Amino acid sequence: MDDIGTLSSLITILIAVICVVELVYILHLKKSVQSSSLSTRSKKNDEDDEENNEYEEEIKNMMNQGLEQGIIEADEREMINNVFEFGDKECKDVMRFRKKIVGIDNHMSIEECLNFMLEQPYSRYPLYETDIDNILGVLYLKDVIEAYLNQEEKPLSEIAREAFFVHETMEISDLFKEMQLKKIHMAIVVDEYGQTEGIVAMEDMLEVIVGNIFDEYDIDEHEITKLGEEGGYLIQGVTRLDVLEELLDIEFPDEDIETINGFLIDQLGHLPEDNEEVEIIYEGYSFKSMDIHEKMVRQIKVSKIEKDKGE
C-alpha cells in the first residue's frame, strides 16, 4: 500500500475511534438518566424504546441517503450502523475465547518468559498458576524487559500488574468506559462459576465498529494464505468456521464449535498427538494438518478435491 493510502486508512480508523469514545459516553449517560428515575418513568419505557428505535432508523436513513448522494463512503456508513450494535453487545460477544488465550506460567524464569514473549505477537499476557482458571495478574512485555535488563531475580507474579476481571454478560459500552477511566488495556472474562471464559482488549471492542478494516488485514496476513500453483489455502487452527463458510461456500454443522481446530478434533474423535497426521474430507475439501502442537491443530492445508471425469 502506498503512503497516501496508508495515511488515509489510519485517518479513517482514528475518526472511528473518536466516534466510539463519544458515542459510548452518550449511551452510558442515557442509560444512567433512565435508571436514576426508573420508578417515575416505568410507564414511559415502551414510549422511550419506540422513540429510540425511530431515532436510530432516522440516522440510518440519513446515512443511506448520504451514501446514495456520494456524501459518505460505504465504510463510514457501516461504522455508524455498527455503533448502534455496540450498545447491545456483551463481553462474551467480542472476547477472545479461552482456547485462543496465550498465557504465561508463573513458574517460568524472567529470561524464559522474555524469550517466549518475543516469539509472540502480543505485548500483554495473563499470568497463571497451574492453569488458566487461576490468573494471578497481567504481564506487560516492557515490564519483563526492564526486569531482565536490571538482572532482577524474582517471581513473575511480582512483576505482573493486577488483573481486571469482568463477567461475561457485562455490556461492552460499560466496559469500554471503565477501562478508559482505569487506563486498563485487558480484561479477564469469567463465567458464573469464576472460570476463565476469555479476554477482552480495547482493540476487540473497537473492532465492533471498524471490524471490516481490521479483519481485512488480520485474515489475509495471519489466518488465511492463498497457495499459488498448487491451489487451496493454508489456514491457522484458530480460523473461525463462519469465515471458512464464506470463503469455501460450504456449511459446517450447526454445533457449539467456533474454529476449524475444534471442528477437526470433533470429526477426529480424539485429541491429536504432535506427530499424528490428520486429514478430514468434508464437503468436497481436504483438511490436512500441517502443524500439531500441544494437542491442537495449529495449521491446516485446505484443498479442493477434484472429482473424476467419469463420475
Write up what this structure looks like.
This protein is an alpha+beta fold and 311 residues long. It folds into three domains: 3-88; 93-205, CBS-domain (Roll); 227-304, Uridine Diphospho-n-acetylenolpyruvylglucosamine Reductase, domain 3 (2-Layer Sandwich), CATH 3.30.465. Helices cover 47% and strands 20% of the residues. The strands form three sheets. The protein has a five-stranded antiparallel sheet with strand order 8-9-12-11-10. A four-stranded mixed sheet has the order 1-7-6-5. Strand 10 (279-282) and strand 11 form a beta hairpin. Helix 1 packs across helix 8 and helix 3 (45-68) runs antiparallel to helix 4. The relative contact order is 0.09.
Q: Helical element count? A: 11
CATH class of the largest domain: Alpha Beta
Radius of gyration: 23 Å
For the residues shown, what is the average pLDDT? 77
Spell out the helices and strands N to C: HHHHHEEHEEHEHEEHEEHHEEE
**Number of β-strand runs:** 12
Tell me the strand order in the biggest sheet.
Answer: 8-9-12-11-10
How much of the sequence is in beta strands? 15-25%
**What is the CATH topology assignment of the largest domain?**
CBS-domain
| Uncertain spans | 1-11, 212-222
Class by SSE composition: alpha+beta
